[in-house]
Design brief:
Layout (H helix, E strand, L loop, with lengths): L3 E6 L4 H17 L2 E6 L2 H8 L8 H18 L14 H7 L5 H16 L8 H12 L3 H9 L1 H16 L7 E4 L2 E4 L4 H9 L1
Parallel strand pairs: 1-2
Antiparallel strand pairs: 1-3, 3-4
Helix pairs in contact: 1-3, 1-5, 1-9, 2-8, 4-8, 5-6, 6-7
Length: 196
């Protein structure tokens, strides 16, 4: 039986990038589908009471090294940026206007590459607009509206609240049958569950 899995990601998370790189292969092995949720990580942390890794410098430094180890293990490129960008709100707002799984998947995929491979500012309106136009068929006007209107602001907040109500406190997170799997390193348990 095909299962739908909620996939919660933020572009600023290297572990979202790492986990995303494995999702197609896992889908092929298990037959389940994804419902993507691009969330504002700061809102998730705030609502869940999670201070985030930047509050503990030794943890923050460790996570960068660990992300590089995982990228090497997966055999994918990963370039840690000189300046980390934590503003996921613009990308989450644009994502709210994208309709359909494949368009949403392509938007996320390209934004992850933009930041974690090419080091571009994924929160920049021009960068976001270019990606949204090329992957999801949005117009520049639609992108501009998403970044400024009240409707998408409310939608992003509702998305964060919904995520936290499912137990999400960070990303990447995967929810299936009301069970939470958190972290790139929990993909093995997610896949085992889906095959059970």
């Amino acid at each position: 039986m095909t299962k739908d899995v909620g996939v919660y990601l933020s572009i600023s998370s290297p572990f979202s990038y790492l986990a995303f790189s494995q999702l197609t292969a896992i889908r092929e092995r298990t037959g389940y589908q994804y419902n993507y949720h691009l969330v504002d990580l700061r809102q998730i942390w705030d609502l869940a009471g999670n201070p985030g890794p930047a509050q503990v410098i030794s943890k923050f430094n460790y996570l960068g090294a660990d992300a590089l180890r995982w990228a090497d293990y997966y055999g994918i490129p990963l370039n840690l940026p000189e300046t980390f960008i934590f503003d996921n709100l613009p990308s989450a707002r644009v994502f709210q206007t994208i309709k359909g799984r494949e368009a949403g998947k392509e938007f996320i995929s390209r934004l992850l590459e933009v930041y974690w491979i090419h080091g571009e500012d994924f929160s920049n309106a021009e960068v976001l607009g270019k990606v949204a136009v090329n992957t999801a068929g949005l117009t520049e006007r639609a992108v501009a509206a998403a970044l400024t209107n009240e409707e998408t602001k409310v939608s992003v907040r509702a998305e964060a609240k919904s995520a936290v109500s499912h137990g999400v406190f960070g990303v990447p997170a995967f929810v299936v049958d009301d069970i939470l799997f958190w972290g790139n390193d929990r993909l093995v348990f997610l896949e085992r569950y889906l095959l059970s």
